[in-house]
Design a protein that fits this description.
binds calcium ion, 2 domains, 9 strands, 5-stranded mixed beta sheet, 4-stranded mixed beta sheet, Immunoglobulin-like, alpha+beta, elongated
Length: 263
């Protein structure tokens, strides 16, 4: 019984070892990598001007589609016939940020960027400093797209390394190291710095992991489980022989009793 419990314990340990190795093997197969830290790189598109004639806007663009991480610039300008100068006006840009909180930015020009896919509104309000009732607002409706150029690479990642989304797509190899920019993104490597070509271990990591599992199982079988099983068999055989001897002895004892002449 003790031996059987020990054997079960060994089998349990072997099972856990196999499960753990299988999990790491699966991780290798799935190519688990940590996502690269992303940050924005500024890129200014053409400024959009709001014209004030009196504190009233005129504009031909109140909505915009942006690429994630793309820097935008909007400005308020005065029309030729404006009766005001910019210094006579308060200009406030009310923003919805990436985190959906509200921020006010003042000044004639707004420079901003969004990193995450969303729809966001920017409301610009112009007010005459000496007469707060003389005020006017407009809303710019923005749609931010994570991969506006549709090349499979997040635009934020492209800007981080190339400052533009135009120089790269999934098939290009910016640093010419044999890894495509798509592979570098998935691997979390810097696509502007040459990396070593994949070696045997990287190319055949699944095979190495599989062989490691087989070796562990064989070692457990040959050096631990099989000797235990042999010991158990031998112990059983000894018990059987001892029992047979006892039976034989008892039979012999009966014969002797039966052969003894009755007085
Ligand atoms: Ca892209
Ligand atoms: Ca490369």
């Amino acid at each position: 019984m003790v031996i059987m419990l020990k054997q079960k314990g060994i089998l349990l340990v072997a099972m856990i070892a196999i499960i753990m190795l299988s999990a790491s093997f699966a991780a290798v197969l799935l190519g688990a990598t940590s996502a690269p830290e992303e940050k924005s790189v500024a890129r200014t598109e053409a400024a959009i001007a709001f014209t004030i004639i009196g504190p009233t806007f005129t504009s031909n663009k109140y909505s915009d589609i942006l690429s994630a991480g793309e820097e935008i610039s909007y400005s308020v300008s005065l029309g030729a016939s404006s009766i005001y100068s910019l210094s006579q006006l308060d200009i406030v840009w009310k923003l919805e940020t990436d985190w959906n909180t509200s921020v006010n930015v003042t000044g004639a020009t707004l420079i901003w960027y969004y990193n995450y896919e969303a729809t966001r509104d920017i409301t610009v309000t112009v007010t005459q400093k000496t007469n707060s009732t003389n005020t006017s607002s407009e809303v710019i409706a923005l749609q931010i797209i994570a991969d506006l150029d549709g090349d499979g690479l997040p635009d934020l990642w492209e800007r981080r390394y190339f400052s533009t989304t135009a120089s790269s797509d999934g098939t290009t190899d910016y640093d010419g190291d044999g890894w495509t920019d798509m592979e570098e993104f998935k691997n979390g490597t810097d696509p502007t710095v040459k990396n070593p070509k994949p070696g045997f271990l990287e190319t055949y990591s699944w095979l190495v992991a599989l062989l490691a599992i087989i070796v562990v199982v064989v070692v457990l079988m040959v050096f631990i489980i099989m000797p235990r099983m042999k010991m158990e068999r031998e112990a059983d055989e000894k018990k059987k022989i001892a029992a047979a001897v006892e039976v034989e002895k008892s039979l012999l004892g009966l014969d002797e009793l039966e052969d003894t002449p009755k007085k």
